[in-house]
Every structure is written in structure tokens, then in C-alpha cells.
Recover the amino acids of this structure.
């Protein structure tokens, strides 16, 4: 399915683009901070692990966070766990793939979501597409990318196969990314998957930050055995399933 709008990211973003993006990231982040932390009841386990990686990981070390997907507003709501100053720091905040048939259907939506560091990914176009290439470039610069590896809102909350696009990002990254699994419960109560789509208050939200890990040894071992890039990517995706 081709992208319905123009590619939203300029090759060399102007100062005005960066300023607008910083404002959108900060305002949406501030909403998430207030809504999850003060309008609902938020509990975060091992929060310091995530905060430390966002703030203090080496500049040549990308961060990939992975989480389950319960509601169409898991992102941005989940980032209410961050510090307020982090939410307003454009360079520290995450990039994330977003469904082009939902977030990039008009030029107005495209401008908003792209400046919120959302990258259009076209369903059915596979893992080798422009949006995935763009995200890989960000990882190769040591930036933070958040992925919902289930590839869709999992309304039944059953275990489903992870999309191997995450494996491609890990396997083809020129640096050694830190992978951090997250698991959340309750965000589908804050925004149920049924009309009216209005965020609720007074709900219990729990976020578990897992243990960071790397698959550098796995990737190097598979490459030493001359395994195909597809198999390396698949194995990386499988290793992420084991971390959940």
C-alpha cells in the first residue's frame, strides 16, 4: 500500500521544522505526563533503568525499546513514565514507526505525526521500505527508536508472532543497540478500543521496565557461519520474544 502523502521528512530540516517538532513533542509529552501520572494511577517498576538509558547511554549506542500494544494511544501515553525535561528534549526522545493508513492519510496528519517523530510504515510493503530504512538510519546515528513488534493493537492480548522488521533493524544496525523490553497493563482502560474514543481517568496503569540486553554475540556468530541476512533478522526477532 503506497504512502498517500508526500514523504514528510526533509533531507535537511530547517530550523523552523525542528522548532515545530520540539513543540509538538513537548506538548504531547506533557499531556501524557499529566494524564498518566496525575489523572490516573501509575505504577512503574525499574523506572530508573529506562531513565538512565535515555539520559546517559554513550552517543554511539542506539536504544531500541519494545513493548506490547494494547491501545491506539499506548504511544504517547506510555511516555508519561519519563521525566518532564526528557519529554521536551527533542534529541533524547524516541522515533517510532506508525501505520501510514492511520496517521498519514492527509497532509495535515502527516505534518503533525512526522513532527512528533513518527515515521510512516506502509502495511504490506514488507520490512524493506522507505520508512524502515529511515528508522535504521536513526539507529545508526545512536538515536532511540520505540517499536511495537506485534505490529498492531493486540485487542485480545494473546501472544502473537512478532513482526521480523524489528529483527531487521537490530541485525542491520551498524552499531550495537541496547534493547530494552517494556510491558504495560491498563493503557487499554485509559483509552478503550471502543467508541467513544475518549481518554479515561482514575484507571490503574502498571509499566514494567525489563532488563536491557544486546544480541551482538548472536549476530556475530550467525554472520561467521555465513547465514543469510533473512535468517539473522529472524533470529534477532526470536531473541526479542524470549525477552518478553
Amino acid at each position: 500500500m503506497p504512502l498517500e502523502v508526500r514523504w514528510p521528512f526533509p533531507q535537511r530540516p530547517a530550523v523552523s521544522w525542528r522548532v515545530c517538532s520540539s513543540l509538538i513533542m513537548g506538548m504531547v509529552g506533557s499531556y501524557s505526563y499529566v494524564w498518566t501520572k496525575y489523572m490516573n494511577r501509575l505504577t512503574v517498576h525499574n523506572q530508573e533503568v529506562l531513565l538512565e538509558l535515555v539520559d546517559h547511554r554513550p552517543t554511539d549506542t542506539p536504544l531500541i525499546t519494545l513493548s506490547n500494544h494494547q491501545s491506539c494511544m499506548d504511544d504517547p501515553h506510555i511516555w508519561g513514565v519519563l521525566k518532564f525535561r526528557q519529554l521536551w528534549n527533542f534529541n533524547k526522545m524516541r522515533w517510532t514507526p506508525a501505520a501510514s493508513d492511520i496517521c498519514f492519510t492527509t497532509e495535515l496528519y502527516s505534518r503533525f505525526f512526522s513532527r512528533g517523530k513518527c515515521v510512516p510504515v506502509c502495511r504490506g510493503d514488507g520490512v524493506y521500505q522507505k520508512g524502515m530504512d529511515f528508522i535504521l538510519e536513526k539507529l545508526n546515528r545512536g538515536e532511540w527508536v520505540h517499536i511495537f513488534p506485534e505490529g498492531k493493537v493486540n485487542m485480545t492480548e494473546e501472544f502473537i508472532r512478532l513482526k521480523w522488521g524489528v529483527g531487521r533493524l537490530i541485525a542491520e544496525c551498524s552499531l550495537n543497540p541496547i534493547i530494552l523490553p517494556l510491558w504495560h497493563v491498563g493503557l487499554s482502560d485509559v483509552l478503550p478500543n471502543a467508541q467513544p474514543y475518549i481518554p479515561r481517568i482514575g484507571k490503574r496503569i502498571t509499566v514494567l521496565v525489563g532488563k536491557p540486553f544486546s544480541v551482538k554475540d548472536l549476530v556475530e556468530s550467525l554472520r561467521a557461519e555465513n547465514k543469510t541476512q533473512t535468517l539473522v533478522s529472524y533470529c534477532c526477532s526470536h531473541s526479542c520474544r524470549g525477552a518478553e
Observations:
- The CA atoms of residues 13 and 19 lie 10 Å apart.
- The first strand starts at residue 41 and ends at 45.
- The mean pLDDT is 92.
- The chain has eleven helices and seven strands.
